[in-house]
Write a structure and sequence with these properties.
With 180 residues, this protein is mainly beta. Helix content is 12%, strand content 35%. The protein has 2 helices and 12 strands.
Length: 180
């Protein structure tokens, strides 16, 4: 498990984590950022970088911080997490300042968004749904994965995001021989 947390009154608050199966070859990516982000390199059918991020609701984000973060991620990468950003581009009914900043950043950097407009969050206080969890990637990865929102909250107020690789690697195939 790889994690980072903010400290509020000497207790963990917010934060982001990545859990990896023991049989997956992986290593940590050291990040120099004040964002709540953690990253690893994974060897699947090809080596990719996965970065998980949490941006608190009342925090201010700027493109320079996002650029600094993505510049530290070896390509190709997937950046996913709770951005607390609203934009119709990924399914929100409204815009907010964070949503506009992230939209501009994705556009300027030539990145792609996996989101299909599905709701990713259920507000526990008023029961409203929104799309504040975003999955961003290098264009070279967009067609390699399917993206969907799990239909069970699993005890959270955020629906789990499921990214599935669309192609099996040669190592996962059952060997076959044709004997003549």
């Amino acid at each position: 498990m790889y994690s980072t947390f903010s400290k509020v009154d000497e207790r963990a608050a917010g934060g982001s984590s990545i859990f990896v199966k023991d049989n997956v070859i992986h290593s940590t990516v050291q990040l120099t950022t004040d964002l709540q982000a953690v990253a690893i390199r994974l060897s699947l059918d090809k080596t990719i970088t996965l970065c998980s991020i949490y941006i608190p609701p009342n925090s201010i984000i700027d493109k320079a911080k996002l650029k600094n973060l993505t510049d530290q991620l070896p390509s190709p990468f997937i950046l996913m997490g709770d951005f607390n950003a609203h934009n119709p581009l990924w399914g929100s009914k409204t815009h907010n300042a964070k949503g506009k900043i992230i939209e501009d950043f994705v556009s300027q950097e030539g990145l792609c968004i996996f989101n299909d407009g599905s709701n990713t969050y259920l507000h526990p206080g008023n029961g409203s749904y929104s799309s504040i969890d975003i999955t961003i990637c290098d264009p070279s990865l967009l067609l390699d994965y399917s993206w969907r929102v799990h239909d069970d909250l699993c005890g959270s107020d955020h629906f789990p995001i499921v990214l599935e690789h669309l192609f099996t690697s040669a190592q996962q195939r059952v060997p076959r021989w044709k004997l003549v």
